[in-house]
């Protein structure tokens, strides 16, 4: 995986886990990083409190915290998509990035 993508995937997982520890009281967390075709995807799903934030699809909601906004900004800078929101039993964060991504100059 290109170093730029490696760093973004790491930051999405890191910030998601930080949010889980701070806000969710989760007992289980699932982290999945997959390369599918010409994309890499990362998903972090917990079973804790769903959170107060509205669902986010391809960008942060106006009231989203700095963590979600920062993740979305990093993902979008490389041409990817970002989503975050409540699930039936917790909260999920996901990002999909094209493998041909390069940091814009």
From TrEMBL:
Its domain of life? Bacteria
Q: What is its EC number?
A: 2.7.13.3
Q: Which species is this record about?
A: Agromyces agglutinans
Name the reaction it catalyses.
Answer: ATP + protein L-histidine = ADP + protein N-phospho-L-histidine
Mind listing the GO molecular function terms for this protein?
protein histidine kinase activity
Protein's recorded name: histidine kinase
Entries under SMART domains matching the protein: HATPase_c
One Pfam family it belongs to: HATPase_c
Q: Does the keyword Coiled coil apply?
A: no
InterPro entries assigned to the protein according to its UniProt record, in alphabetical order: HATPase_C_sf, HATPase_dom, Sensor_HK_TwoCompSys
At the top of the EC hierarchy, this enzyme's class is transferase
A GO biological process of this protein is:
phosphorelay signal transduction system
| Gene3D superfamilies per UniProt | Histidine kinase-like ATPase, C-terminal domain
Do you know which SUPFAM superfamilies this protein is assigned to?
ATPase domain of HSP90 chaperone/DNA topoisomerase II/histidine kinase
- Where does the Histidine kinase/HSP90-like ATPase domain start and stop, copy by copy? 4-101
Alphabetically sorted, this entry's keywords are: Kinase, Transferase, Two-component regulatory system
């Amino acid at each position: 995986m290109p170093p730029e993508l490696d760093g973004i995937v790491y930051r999405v997982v890191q910030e998601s886990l930080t949010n889980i520890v701070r806000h969710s009281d989760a007992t289980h967390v699932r982290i999945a990083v997959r390369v599918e075709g010409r994309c890499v995807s990362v998903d972090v799903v917990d079973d804790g409190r769903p959170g107060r934030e509205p669902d986010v699809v391809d960008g942060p909601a106006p009231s989203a915290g700095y963590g979600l906004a920062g993740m979305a900004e990093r993902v979008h800078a490389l041409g990817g998509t970002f989503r975050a929101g409540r699930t039936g039993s917790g909260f999920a964060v996901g990002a999909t990035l094209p493998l041909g991504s390069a940091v814009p100059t």
